[in-house]
């Protein structure tokens, strides 16, 4: 069997603790299932800055490019709040996304039944919620040029960012959304601000044409992004797959994640295009939550989002569908048993730390 | 007494019906209080396009510029979904904002106690909610150039929008936020994406400097806009005044409005800078809701947002503070009596149409 190469980037804050629990699952899969995972590890974010003066080193970038999949923890923290913009912790993540061409960010917003009451929404609005947000991840205002601050003199500066989308970028992300919809409820809602943005006009056109040309069996709806934000709060269950650009995706997926009451539990996958020859796609898996510096190192962080990200990795990078399903079921089982980390603690539940949670999931796996 | 000049732009959809109820309040104030309002009226949006081939005529633009205040209904509808981008209904509103230099958009997100149960959030999270969102309205990605679609050949197009902010633009909107905070709970939260956008870096710097130089008595917090969206859903009552840019303000104020359960009821004010000589500021008042073409012309639209927008007009354009307070109290009283339009109907309440709601409020005024 060929080796399955994983590159681990635990990052800052609670990233390393959460990654520790995934490492145990990997070791278990190698031992008990002969899964053949080979892991290497690097630095990203503030830690990389401290070690190399960059948010990720060239050496680690090479390893990320060569791996079958990257597992990413989290980056950032107050310690690096005033490092120069170019080497801030987030720059490492953004470079990984860009250089690996991970244009498709899959963010499931699901509500774990055991946690429905933790949502700030009324339980009946979120029970059973299962949305998949597909966010474009390598274009838009995140990477467009010019992106700069100009000194205009007289104490005046000008900050500029540029939102750019080309037809092919919209086409390929729309394709991912339609493909994913076919494996679900077969419905896609595309969100932009075509009433204000020219990139939104183009987005709307290209999604419409892609739908007509290749995916007319899928139900397609268009919504303005501001109205989309409202509808997510009003009636989230109306959505199946949402496809949107990098910046709207950032905002809308965070709102959707918060709705579920399961924020600390949500995974994400960032995928590239399938290679023409091998069919393999580059991929990075990361929790939706951040580095939570306030609780880092205390052993109380919730490792579930990181573990669920690894389940996505099993599914999308290695086609280990059954194993992915089982790992996700193990998470649900542990929750149903009332085992909880502090962030999702509920009355009558058993409060555990990071390691105990990881081990409880492994025991159910 | 000098005349108080109001320019009415009812617009499309339910705009004219809602404006009809404000017209009665104006007539009543002239008669009973000798308020001296002089009104003129124009076309905007789809109606203006049908009449003039533009989203607002030059003549009406002149009248808007000359008025003490503009009252704006709503624009848009399926009838105009495929008119050219330059003359789409929204272009009329955007031109008004830009040419009148209405840089400060005030969007209160309040939860009417009688409607707390209508929110999709748990009642205790929204009861008593009172946030003021201050959205920059004449800059950012809404107006920056280049804003275009380029044909690249080979079936490829490129959509471009440009986010631009200058120091003075951030300074003046921050100033409005700090001033408003002083009349409230004295707390401002500024939101941007400084971890990704250079305009966000500048925004953060200028807000910080403005605070230090002139408003250090006000409590200032910074939040990333995506985290801000999350926090609005998680714990909205943590906020007093939120200040943010044009696009984030569009998204965040819609989410905040939806949280209140009072979406159809929320007003907004868009203000310019005080004139150097007279101290007067140009202003436009409009409901946060849209033109709701599906219920237009049926006499069932909720006129409360439009009437509450007129209350803001009384307060900010004419310093008629007591009258503004009374009008707002009249709205609350009618709601407390269980009088409801269809959109806010509740069990045991009395369902009324647009005209009856308007008259009920006038009777309490
Ligand atoms: C950390 C930051 C650069 C990032 C983003 O804005 O994309 C994060 O918010 C996310 O959503 O993954
Ligand atoms: C109608 C549209 C152009 C407008 C905007 O995007 O500003 C609306 O959504 C608003 O919030 O006032």
UniProtKB/TrEMBL annotation, chains A, B:
Its EC number is 1.1.1.85. Binds 1 Mg(2+) or Mn(2+) ion per subunit. The keyword DNA damage does not apply. Pathway: Amino-acid biosynthesis; L-leucine biosynthesis; L-leucine from 3-methyl-2-oxobutanoate: step 3/4. Mg(2+) binds at residues 226, 250, 254. It catalyses: (2R,3S)-3-isopropylmalate + NAD(+) = 4-methyl-2-oxopentanoate + CO2 + NADH. Keywords: Amino-acid biosynthesis, Branched-chain amino acid biosynthesis, Cytoplasm, Leucine biosynthesis, Magnesium, Manganese, Metal-binding, NAD, Oxidoreductase. The record marks 142, 193 as: Important for catalysis. Substrate binds at residues 97, 107, 135, 226. Its cofactor is Mg(2+); Mn(2+). Residues 5-361 form the Isopropylmalate dehydrogenase-like domain. InterPro entries: IsoCit/isopropylmalate_DH_CS (IPR019818), IsoPropMal-DH-like_dom (IPR024084), Isopropylmalate_DH (IPR004429). SMART domains: Iso_dh (SM01329). NAD(+) binds at residues 77-90, 290-302. Its main location: cytoplasm. It comes from the Bacteria. Belongs to the isocitrate and isopropylmalate dehydrogenases family. LeuB type 1 subfamily. PANTHER family: 3-ISOPROPYLMALATE DEHYDROGENASE. Homodimer. Catalyzes the oxidation of 3-carboxy-2-hydroxy-4-methylpentanoate (3-isopropylmalate) to 3-carboxy-4-methyl-2-oxopentanoate. The product decarboxylates to 4-methyl-2 oxopentanoate. This is 3-isopropylmalate dehydrogenase. It comes from Rhizobium sullae (Rhizobium hedysari).
